[in-house]
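With this grant's support, we have paired protein sequences with backbone structure tokens. One protein thus recorded is set out beneath this paragraph:

_____
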Amino acid sequence: MEGSNTSTINYNAEQFFGWADYLVFVGMLVISAIIGIYYACFGAKQNTTSEFLMAGRNMGTFPVAMSLIASFMSAITLLGTPAEVYQYGTMYWLIVLAFFLVMPATNYLYMPIFYELHVTSAYEYLELRFSKLVRCLGSATFTVQMTLYMAVVVYAPALALSQVTGIHVYVSVTAIFVVCVFYTVVGGMKAVMWTDTVQVIIMFISMAVVVFKGDIDKGGSAAVWAINQETDRVEFGDFDTSPAKRHSVWSLIIGGYFTWVTIYGVNQSQVQRYLTATTMKQARNAVWINLVGLVALISLCCYGGMVIFARYSECDLLTAGFIAKPDQLFPRFVMDTLGNVPGVPGLFVAGIFSGALSTVSSGLNSLAAICLEDFVRPFCGREMDDARATSISKFIALGFGALCFGLVFVAAQLGNVLEAALSIFGILGGPLLGVFTLGMFFPWANSIGAAAGLLSSLFLMLWIGVGTQVAKAQGFIKVPRKPVSFEGCPFNSTMANFTSSTTTEFPTIGFDTTTSMPLGNEMDKPLDLYNLSYMWYSACGCMTVIVVGLIVSAFTGPQNPRKLNPGLVCNTGNTIYWFLPKKAKEFLRFHVGDEYVPEIKPKSDIKLGEINVAFSSSNPDDLQTISNVRMQT
């Protein structure tokens, strides 16, 4: 059955990228640039920080939802997820179950606090709740996290384009940054969000066309499923409780929750997006729509990995040396199945580039907001007029674009781009989630505890992350792949001769079920801590902040909840434990804000909603009404 299919595989697929493909690809870039020019020349013309950074806070539900999907459904997802399933099986697909926990938590625990505070930088919250030091630490951590992530995101599509066109990787990288920086700086947040909308549509169309064509070629989903089952790739029931297990039900659902709530709950890029919605109801609806799109795109990518394996089940391209990295699997598959259809390879590359452009533009805009609000205004000029602040924001975005371009050379040295990206969010995002969670859910935590917890967590996670990478480089940590075959390769006799002289090499790559270690001094064996699954990084970082923060707060004098601004703490009685009796819910309010006296501010300093209206006593007589002021604009 498979022989006829494998005989039609084209192993020189690069030759098919023609003029129609370039036309489709360039068309996508031109559309993105035109959107930026439109918002620079019409409407508010991006002359204020409110327009440039927050889109005037009047965006509708649909563009907000599409932008939320686009911001972190990048080329990492489109290339890395199919490669993950191809190599390690379908366990990763269970990550979608975590999304059904992440989105309600975002909508009802984290979003109301940010939305009612009317902030531009999410890290303004940390100063209001703790201190300026904690705010600066959080902002600096996010800046490092986002610049590293953007470099990884850009390298992935550049690799894809080089695979199918022969264009040098760094020429592609340059094209991405030039177009992306242009429409981000010129068009501001509105341009970013509307280009995100266009790019999400392109991503879905390109992925669907390629995956469905491959599915049809293999005889349908039943045939694809059967071929993957033959090599034990179809698995959803690994309940191994070991934290060293790379993917299990627990690491993907519980660890996945912490990984993704880091992104949707407290990440500046996402917070900034749903704060552009006109009302909180619209913002919440956007998150629900985003949930549907997110599950659909991840599922499409996972099934795409199964289709790719079904196509190459008798000739593993990686083992045979036709591709250098797993992330080149999908581009090669596209050229093999649809390379002879004019425009389709161009559509695929446009989809991959759309994922990169949307993530980088979101990152640049969020970094501009962070640096302006958390570093420039507080330290260099609170009285700065809005026009000057907007100009500075644009230069900041331009500067970060140049910095991320340089970091692409570092990203080129990484292996699995999906794991690399999620590891970055775990190592640096977990501590950030922890400090926000500490402030919002533990009213006794003080600023000293928050700073100590954040620094301790960053130190621990960087130690684990760096140590793990060193151990991998030295060969101590290897992740076993699912079985592969090369019997159907066009030169299988050559491969057979080669493997007969290297009998220990290919079994380790394709068939070993345990982690392999090189022979050597046992003293060189890395710490067991380095075997921790990357899916637990965010949870580990978050819990470290909370535990250390509460202990240090207890020793240095805990915060008095009664004197705390109730708009800064989540009312767990009304949100998490809404089903409990009235008295129990009142107890779980912990008397937050009962003795709070709001600071009297000059009229020009008053911001929207300095109290979270969701945080009210369950007793109507005790409702907090202070500080619920809307700035007249």
About this structure: DSSP finds 23 helices and no strands in the chain.
